[in-house]
């Protein structure tokens, strides 16, 4: 993972929404979804729990910004 990956994860955690995070990051929601799927596949576990449309960090997810 690189710095941009961490920035994306932190933004998703802060917004609790892929759509809002994508808007703030100036990327499409589909690009952010693909990013998250790739990272979760790399680490082999979900970083977020999906509760409806909300995204909540799992214990594996980063707990604080860089």
Question: How would you sum up this structure, described in words?
Answer:
The chain is globular, with a radius of gyration of 11 Å. The two termini are 13 Å apart. The mean pLDDT is 89. The chain is built from three helices and two strands; from the N terminus they run H-H-H-E-E. A hairpin with a 2-residue loop joins strand 1 (48-51) and strand 2 (54-57). It has helices at 3-15, 18-25, 29-43, and strands spanning 48-51, 54-57. Helix 2 (18-25) crosses helix 3. A two-stranded antiparallel sheet has the order 1-2. The longest helix has 15 residues, at 29-43. The chain has 66 residues and is of the alpha+beta class.
Give me a quick take on this structure:
Residues 1-58 form the HTH lysR-type domain. With 66 residues, the chain is an alpha+beta fold.
């Amino acid at each position: 993972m690189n710095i941009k990956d961490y920035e994306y994860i932190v933004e998703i955690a802060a917004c609790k929404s892929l759509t809002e995070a994508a808007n703030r990051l100036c990327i499409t929601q589909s690009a952010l979804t693909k990013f998250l799927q790739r990272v979760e596949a790399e680490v082999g576990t979900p970083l977020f729990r999906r509760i409806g449309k909300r995204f909540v960090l799992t214990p594996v997810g980063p707990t604080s910004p860089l």
